[in-house]
């Protein structure tokens, strides 16, 4: 076969919708290199690393500093409401539309959906920490101090149901980056340390001071308290408790936790 004939065979025209296009060798079955299949999960950058089931996006260049962004900021507010109602599959386009801005404007503020998720989570944690700080007393009977903290957290959850649910949804779905989770711990650190001090005042059995403030027993008690407060929020919201009924419900939940500490 002549060189001209070979070229004609390789680049023969194909007609479609009145237009002609040339078929590249790699597009025909049995010729050229196979197509490259991108196995990266949707929404996951190639630089992402999985750390114990949670995507660690430290290499993705995500800026997760709050810089004054609060839950009331339109894009963050829209994201919180949609995450709470629809879960983590909601798109940035949907969030932008709900916030009344273009998708391009959203990405002018947040370089990726991951950056937005981290900002949302940190904004909620900051609001929770601010509420806890105002409810925690530096002195007084241990039980009263812990009850005030418990009461404040449950009432905040009921007053901010979308925020509370969004934070739980994002955390449970492992959507928050490891960097943002670490920053959230730092933002809640003053509250964590105060509550730990209160717990240590009333309970020493099983606590190992040598393990420090982040020891297993300390983490277990904080996790147990958070789980019971979340249950109290969900039950009160489901029953629509108000006034004295809500007061009794919050107190009952706390008493169960308190007696569990001394069982």
Describe this entry's structure for a reader:
The chain is mainly alpha-helical and 263 residues long. It has a single domain, classed as Tetracycline Repressor, domain 2 (Orthogonal Bundle). Helices cover 60% and strands 5% of the residues. It has helices spanning 3-10, 74-86, 92-99, 103-109, 113-135, 142-159, 161-172, 178-202, 216-239, 243-261; strands at residues 13-16, 19-22, 49-51, 54-56. The strands form 2 sheets. It has a two-stranded antiparallel ribbon. Strands 3-4 form a two-stranded antiparallel ribbon. Strand 1 and strand 2 (19-22) form a beta hairpin. The protein is globular, with a radius of gyration of 27 Å. Mean pLDDT is 75; it is low at 6-69 and 205-214. Residues 69-128 form the HTH tetR-type domain. Keywords: DNA-binding, Transcription, Transcription regulation. Residues 91-110 bind DNA. Residues 49-60 have a biased composition (Basic and acidic residues). Residues 1-62 are annotated as: Disordered.
Defining key terms:
two-stranded antiparallel sheet, 60% helix, 263 residues, single chain, Tetracycline Repressor, domain 2, mainly alpha, 10 helices
CATH fold-level name: Tetracycline Repressor, domain 2
- Give the H and E element order: HEEEEHHHHHHHHH
What would you call the structural class?
A: mainly alpha
CATH second-level architecture:
Orthogonal Bundle
Spatial arrangement of strands, main beta sheet: 1-2
Q: Tell me about the biggest sheet?
A: 2 strands, antiparallel
Indicate the radius of gyration in whole angstroms: 27 Å
**Which spans of ≥5 residues are poorly predicted at pLDDT below 50?**
6-69, 205-214
* Name of the CATH superfamily: Tetracycline Repressor, domain 2
Determine the strand fraction and express it as a percent band: 5-15%
State the assembly state of the protein chains: single chain
Identify the overall geometry: globular
For the record, the count of structural domains works out to 1
Task: Tell me the number of strands.
Answer: 4
The termini sit apart by 92 Å
Pfam families: TetR_N
DNA-binding region: 91-110
Biased composition (Basic and acidic residues): 49-60
Region (Disordered): 1-62
């Amino acid at each position: 076969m002549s060189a001209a004939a070979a070229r004609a065979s390789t680049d023969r025209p194909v007609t479609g919708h009145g237009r002609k296009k040339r078929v590249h060798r790699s597009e025909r079955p049995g010729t050229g290199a196979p197509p490259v299949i991108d196995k990266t999960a949707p929404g996951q950058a190639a630089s992402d690393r999985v750390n114990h089931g949670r995507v660690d996006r430290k290499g993705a260049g995500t800026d997760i500093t709050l810089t004054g962004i609060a839950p009331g900021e339109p894009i963050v507010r829209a994201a919180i409401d949609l995450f709470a109602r629809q879960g983590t599959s909601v798109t940035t386009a949907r969030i932008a539309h709900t916030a009344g801005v273009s998708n391009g404007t959203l990405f002018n503020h947040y370089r990726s959906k991951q950056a937005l998720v981290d900002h949302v989570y940190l904004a909620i944690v900051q609001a929770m920490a601010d509420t806890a700080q105002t409810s925690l007393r530096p002195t007084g009977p241990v039980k009263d101090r812990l009850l005030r903290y418990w009461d404040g957290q449950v009432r905040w959850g009921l007053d901010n149901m979308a925020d509370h649910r969004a934070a739980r949804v994002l955390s449970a779905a492992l959507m928050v980056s490891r960097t943002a989770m670490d920053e959230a711990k730092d933002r809640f650190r003053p509250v964590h340390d105060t509550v730990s001090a209160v717990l240590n005042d009333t309970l020493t059995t099983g606590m190992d001071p040598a393990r420090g403030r982040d020891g297993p027993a300390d983490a277990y008690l904080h996790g147990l308290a958070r789980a019971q407060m979340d249950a109290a929020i969900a039950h009160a919201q489901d029953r629509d408790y108000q006034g004295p009924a809500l007061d009794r419900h919050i107190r009952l939940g706390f008493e169960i936790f308190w007696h569990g500490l001394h069982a």
